[in-house]
What does this fold into?
Amino acid sequence: MSNSDLSERLDVEGGTFRQWLNPLNKPLRHKIGLLVLLLLAVLPVALTSSEALIFASAFFFAMFAMSWDLVSGYTGQISFGHTVFFTVGGYSAALLNMEMGLSPLMTIPAGVLVAALAGLVIGVPTLRLRGPYLSLVTLIAPLILFGVFRYFPIFGGESGLSGEIDNLFGLGFNDVIPVYYLAFGLFVVVLTVLLAVTRSDAGRIFTAIRESEDAVNSAGLNPAKFKIFAFVLSAAIGGLAGAAFVHTPSASPTPNTLLALAINIEIIIAVFIGGAGTIVGAAAGGLFFGLTRSFLEGSELVIPVANVAIAEVYLILLSVIALVIIYALPGGLLRGSIVGGRRVLNRNSDEDVATDGGEMVNPVAQILNNYRDFLGGDDDER
Amino acid sequence: MVDILPIVISSIVKGSLYALVAVGFTLIFGVGGVLNLAHGATITIGAYAAYLIGEGYALGAPGAIAGAIIVPGLFGALMYIVLIRRVQDDPVIVMIMTLIASIGVESLIGQIGPSGQQPQILVSGNTPEVLGVSVQYHELLIVFVSLALIGALFLYVNRTDTGRAILATSQDRKGAFLVGIDSSRINLWMWVLASVLAGIAGLFLIPSEGLSADMGLWPLIFSFAIVILGGLGSIRGSVVGAYVIGTVEVMTTSLVDPKLTGLTPLLLLLVVLFVRPSGLFGQEVQV
Amino acid sequence: MVAGRSHDTNREDIDMNDNRTIPVDRRSFLKATGATAAATGLAGCRGSSDSGGFKVGVLAPLSGETSDIGQSMANGAKLAVEEINGEGGIDGSDVEVSVKDTEGDPSTAKQKYQQDLALDEDVDVTTGVFTSEVLMSLMDAIAENETVHLTTGAATPEASQLVSDSYDKYKYHFRTGPLNAVQLGQNVATFALNVFPDIDWNRVYLVMENFDWTRPVQDVIEPKLRDSSDIEVVGADRFSPQQTDYGTLYDRVENADADAALVAMGNTGGQAVTSWSRGQRPFGFGGIHIPGQLPSFYGDTMGAPAYSITQNVATPTSELTDKTQDFIGAYEDKFDSLPIYTGYITYDALWQYATVAGDLDGDPGNADDVITGLEESSYTGAIGTIEYHGEGQRFAHDVIYSQDKVNPVFQQWQPDGNGGGTQEVIYPEDFATADYMKPNWI
It folds into this structure.
């Protein structure tokens, strides 16, 4: 939000590598982030078996959300059809495994490759379009893929691929702890890769594209190239998550698991809850959403007056939460809490509150401003 | 060998139904510059309102018609006032919000509403055979009501002051503001009008498709194809587009392969989008 | 938040008040380590010994379009368990039933099976499962869990193919009903060859929803009818279940000048048959039509299925065995509605399981002993005499289809003259209650 935050940016050149590695030298929000990862790493001891499986699924959902955030949160090219890449990755891996007997260790990289290719094929013509036209194309891409699935029997139509699919490392649903760590490990890898990319120069150009393509153009850079790069990388990561997902006991390669429009909307809701254009927000929002969904679905709670089971209306609850957040906390919960936390810290350390003081005058105007900031937004991680 | 008459009839019926949906979709875009992805949910709301009021409260066809007009109209107004007005300058945020709203509405209806009911809520029976073909009265009704409503819309936009204000707003919002047109009110009015048309389409879908929470999804998707084909924002283009898409759809099912249903309009959409993104007709509301 | 969730309200051993105040982590930790222990080789110790009773898991779609079918599964299971407990349970211990909603979705079903039934509740036997897709998504989990499963609502022969090909891995799967899709096709073909010439269905057009289960049905029926000199197949279409304009589809049938549409339809059937009767199409309609199997379907749709024919396990007036009417009566008393085919099958499946487990020489908690017991069992229930194909056979562990064992009936919805309709059996002759009626518009 303000220039003083720039110094907090992850910056290796500012000190020795050892200093950089030391978590104590990190800004508070990085410490919190590392602490959360550490907690997640030891969490299985406190979980029942079925809860551990729920977490594993949530990690995959968070990976989907992060891959979406790279394209839509960063470059501002809102994709409603990202499930295409999860599906292409997942189906490719599953089909190679089922039909040709390749091991998951081969089919997952193959799935990534095919998904990246799909990203290129869809991305190049699509990214020429702007605004609603682009979103419309991404919206119908999954529908076309679905039409193809329905037409050719090998894809199993509505019901997806059925049959024996080998699990990665042969892990079944009884091996809950390894399955948890498998998902968690992949989650950390994806998180790290995406953080590295978005905190690099390329990441800054992505955000610049979101703000103004023309400005990027006039700086002598080709925005199309960067948009396509973001698109393909995002597709590859989505494909990786999809391919790995179908090789775990938690998922089957079916349209409902990978392709449905509802999944893309859930991802959008999740990322908006966490905060778009931050990766960390997408990771947190994805985890939060994935877990909340599972636990609400399994809960026996009943909303008192309406007498409706929460399990049946979780999606409505979460959509309402997302809509409220888009209004009230346009940067998402994560950004909101960082800003809020910083304000508290600032107050304690007697630093000037005045930099943030402008919005005190007119909260509504500030909300609108924040909201514009966020879509035309100013930076990547606040 | 193949009887051409039933294909023509089915195409006209489909086209008339899609036209109701697509015209509303394009009105909102033409005037407000935003895509309302909750348009499909509005169809569902219209159908359920008609069913619950007409059958549930036993108010028959008049109740069903009133339900299909009033409830979606209110929903459209609420959508605009509560969700859209504050973010209407950002088409992408509007898409996201309408999409989220629509999935919320549909999952609510799916959980608490009935499904599968398919009553003949307005008329029943078939016409006597003409040239060896007999048509359901229901289908005739769709064609006539659709033609009448769209004809009335043309007259309204061309002949009345409000209509001209709509045209003016769609062409140049700032200019319209300068001559004293309240664009927010025009937008609200468009959302209501479009939602009512969608609600009526929902009413018409009950006897053929039956109630289900996602019954509005495919008509909405076809609307994408229709408005891209006809040019986003063009009323005339949408009507023509609706009959084209209806015909393409029926021909695919009847002459090629029923498994391809739904796919051809989407492929057509892609081709138009990449070759001639402005569609066959222009940009703003045109008649 | 996570650990405090009281997700297993069925567990009687946890005091609800305690659950709220005691840090739950200890229990969770024990469970987690317990699960790891089980995974490392103690998996054999499941069964009656740990909970003091038998627990039956039922997987059924309780929400969505097919909830009627799932509800009847759940009801059939509850009725069976109530009766079994009334007669002293299995080996003297009571049976508990836990029903999970699959929402008709393969991955949801898989999650419910793995997380809820296998890991959390450690059930002794599972049953239910509607649609082939859901069943196939569960086969590996069933194998891994090494717990007997009795399918009561999915027809795909791929499941028995797995049992046949890798018996040791998949032997836990049995299909009490319905017949598998190949047998269903044979049954429809037999009906067609015997009945169609008499009712003037000489030119037939195959109309199949494009789901897994209809493929073998079509593969069996089509060549048999094409070989017949009485019947001509004038067309065959597979249509997309999600988005089809039935009017146009029937135009194709009409253009082919067919006497009848021979159908195989699940969820899609409601809309399809309504479009047929409202459009007063000049051809008959019959085959396997799952909505038409529901006793309430005629009333719910104001007569839409009138004159349509479908295969069915039984109708409310059927007397396939001595037990058929007893079951229907008890079901109606308890649930105030009539059973659907999945209800009959699930009821029989659990009674057969209880009978086998109760008579066992070995440990009724030992899956291998139960499997042997089921393979050797011949149990006469409400739908007929249930026996299973054995190891090494093509349809290993599928119910045996034969005239004197399990043999479906064909029913026609006939208007009763007062605005209602009844399911009248028209074939086989032994059970027939009426003759075929031509649609009144033809």
